[in-house]
Write a structure and sequence with these properties.
Structural class: alpha/beta
CATH topology: Rossmann fold
Helix content: 25-40%
Radius of gyration: 19 Å
Strand order of the largest sheet: 3-4-2-5-1-6-7-8
Number of strands: 8
Order of helices and strands: HHEHEHHHEEHHEHEHHEHEH
CATH superfamily: P-loop containing nucleotide triphosphate hydrolases
Length: 323
Amino acid sequence: MSLPAANPYAGHYQSPPAPGAAPATGQGAAEPSRLPGLRRFAGRSKPSGPEQQRLARLQTPTHRPYRISVTSIKGGVGKTTTSAMLGLTFGRHREDRTIVVDANPHAGTLADRLLGERVMPTVRDLVSAEQRMRAVNGRGLTEPAQIHQYLGQTDRLMVAASEQNPEISESFDEEDYRRTQDILARAFDIIITDSGTGMKHSGMRGTLAVTDRLIVVAAPRFDAARRAVKTLDEVYAQGYPELVKDAVVVITMDTPKAVGINFDTLVQYFQRLCTTVVQIPYDRLLYAGGTIDYDRVSADTRGAYMDLASLLADGFTTGSPAV
């Protein structure tokens, strides 16, 4: 069986153009700079043993745009934090292009966590620009620089913000989310979607329809565990049993230790439902809720997210094409 066609935009990463600058063409696109996470080994020996193996797994190339959805029907369990840290981890340690998308229809905070509070374009602006351009050229936004104008950037990670007006955001439906994913697949190799808590919202159907790997986030509490199970049930009920079987449950420690629940029992329970369970240790800076500074996150927590990213990257060469 032949591999899916490679992303035609590979090797053409560019930062958003300066205000008033003309979008660059594919012929003159700048070559990607090396990642800070890879530059740090310059002039000294590279890591060896297990660390080198983990980096090699994390840097597994994609053969097509790969889509990861992070979800939970319960808020406050670390879903947005997980999306942000996973994106930052891929961005820090890979040479290709990663984007995180805020698909929360209720004024999501992903862009705030990564970029700080600011006025910036949203996914609705991106889709509107696609429609305008398609009316002009019949093809839509075809150059990465055109797409980047509607995104934010931190380090090597790009960010697509959600609409902050709830009335407008609620009307962003399944077709809009499919269109968003289609646009981003022209310019990015890894697309991470921070989904909302409303599993019945039509936008969630659009997200699940193109998902390659599902992450369900839980916290070490009885209510959070039950809602994580309910999330898996809802995904199954919507017709995606394979996503449930291959799902990764991420248990985020939002306190230094679990209280009133046996953590090992919790892990074993989720392992009966899906493939993998990953624990993310408590980090006080992350759970303060402010803008995330990757380099100030504890080494243990960064390492846990590297393990999660490596696990996901193991599937980059074997995943079947998304619908």
